[in-house]
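Annotators were shown the component list below and the corresponding predicted structure, then asked to write short factual statements about the assembly.
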Amino acid sequence: MDLSAINPVLFIAGFLVAATPLIFAAIGELVVERTGVLNLGVEGMMIAGAICGFAVAVETGSPLAGFAAAAVGGAVISLLFAFLTQVMLANQVASGLALTLFGLGLSALLGQSYVGIKPPRLGDVDFGRLADIPVIGPVLLSHDLMLYAALALVITVWVVLKFTRLGLILRAVGENHDAAHALGYKVVRIRTAAIMFGGACAGLGGAYISLIRVPQWTEGMTAGVGWIALALVVFASWKPLRLLIGAYLFGGLVQLQLNLQAVGVAIPVEYLAMSPYVITIVVLVILSADKTAAPGSLGRNFHASS
Amino acid sequence: MTQLMSLDGLTKAYPGVVANDDVSLSIASGEVHALLGENGAGKSTLVKMIYGLVKPDKGRMRMNGADYAPAEPRAARAAGVGMVFQHFSLFDALSVAENIALGMENAPRMRALSARIRAVSETYGLPLSPDRIVGDLSAGERQRVEIIRCLLQEPKLLIMDEPTSVLTPQEVDILFQTLRKLSAEGTAILYISHKLEEIRALCDAATILRGGKVVATCVPSETTARDMAEMMVGSVLKVPTRAGKVPGETVLKLEGLSAPAPNAFGMPLRDIGFDLRSGEVLGIGGVAGNGQDELLAALSGEMTVKPGMIRFQGTDIGALRPTARRALGLLAAPEERLGHAAVPDMTLTENAMLTGAARERLEHHGFLDWDAAKRFANNIIERFDVRTPGPSATARSLSGGNLQKFVIGREVMQRPEVLVVNQPTWGVDASAAAAIRQALLDLAEKGAAVIVISQDLDELMEISDRFAALNEGRLSATMPALGLDVAEIGQMMGGTHGMEVAHV
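Structure shown to annotators:
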């Protein structure tokens, strides 16, 4: 085994890429949960976005059109969940699980004719001369547009939740939907919008896997990232910046275990493959000390009965 | 005084019930107008229509001579109507300033808003720090948040739904001074309360609702509380009666009872001690959140305590769980009837089984005797006049007052040696409350000891032999209830919690 075979620059650049799908999915779910809705269908929305994005990118030849389609696809499939939970008042846990199963099945059906095709590649953002700076250039400034978009999205969500009236209303709805209703806020409408935002984000995350990280289409290729996103939201105590750290930790571990596999560490591949999931969760459990941070109305259905 | 708001023939029907039937009333600027009625009389529906939460089916509202039909609370607030809710419409995890911003149109930036909150709270003697998290505030402070939220919008009409139920007597005084000051400035106040003496002290006019209809109007200062109560109920009110009696042996002894807070929003119990004798009613007052729930949990066995702190008939029961304590004869009925005292989606028979299994022999070697449970439930329904289709109705389907009669009746019927109840008549109308109090007195009459934890001081004075108050998890010394005056009680309850009189 020769650990010096791992190039630190490539390693860091690689883990930024590995973390990006998770960032997209988790930041969307964070907003959804902040409005008091628990959508366990992240995995299903991701895989739906992955195939929508892949198919449209292949057909049009434009990766950005693919990402746009992935966002729309994720949002549309999340509407199913919104209808069940916000209109029909179905149980959120069961509806979310159903959404995941539905998304996995639907994507397998849609993706049958796309197996084995290579999608068009999304080029890196051109930073001009800046990209020539040693270390910083290849690590931070040689990525595709969507990676930076994910980062910008997290910061935007953080700013909106913390500093704007829109964010305050979102938090209020998640904290106590009866009180928000009494003050005249449209709880169901706000939650439906948040669910669609979450769906769009999950769709982008899925498409990032199928268009950039892998890039090809295989059934079930999101491989549990949606579930990690759900855990990440909880253990990040519903805070965007902490979520970012958790996502990079996960991304780093994924990249590390891939590198370790490559250099032939004498640990069975199965253990290496599961390690990022296990370690991320253990670390986050230890870090999430303030367990009272959960939105007060999380997972409870709202009905304006009075 | 000029006419501010007039309601004409408002009608609102829900499936199966007409909540408001042709209700008319009018309020002048600067008038304090009381809205009286039992639970379910339609008071809440009426104010919700004024506040734009509910649309009337028929009838019209006019404000300052112009038609007024708010489509949503936002429109009502824009027109100058503010409302302080009975169940606080606050967000625990948010700060005071954030809570206030949520209730405002065009809220200013946070820093400017904080300054205005400070200014208004100074002016009206309602001290409040804008940066505190609402979850950490006392009930009185939470109410100040709601009031200031309304005042910042400079309302012309302020609706207050049962504002005093959570306050100490001193806090009530200060609230009244604030309200009088507002009224002197020309703000009309629509005041909903069960507490008739308060209404007599504060209000200029009263409209009394029964069954959704206006049944009477009166000038409260010229009407006795008893007359108003009878107008509300529509019949002559029975006042609980008690015979003089001599207390017996000590059955329950608490010594140095201390326990940590069970959760982040709970209150630790600190060195509580008292003796309870058979045939005696001990009333425990205090503002909500000062350890009432924790004390009940420690007595019922939901929370076990260290040895030597609780003795029942001489035996140490600190480590016993609720079922074991029930078997001995120490029974309890908690405050929250849906979800704590009763399982909402279970039938009355099942709910009767849940606490009655041991003492009523509803269980034999692990098998449940449903016939006996049903008879037991039927007995409770009959004896306590619980209005329900029958024992197979779910607990949720009963109105608050009827369910309360059921959960109290269920314990009383099990012939307890000691019965602990928390808020036995919370949200219950006058006649049902009187029936519950009478049942508790009858129980004591037969030799049981009763502990009544309540925030309703009138109730405690009516039924207790001795009185004590909880404040910050500590229990005051117990005093004979007869002859206690309001000022003494207020001091026992911990004074004013930093409130002061309006000083402008």
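Statements collected:
1. Chain A has one domain: 3-287.
2. Chain A touches chain B at residues 165, 168-169, 171-172, 175-176, 178-180, 182-185, 292-293, 295-296, 306 (CB under 8 Å).
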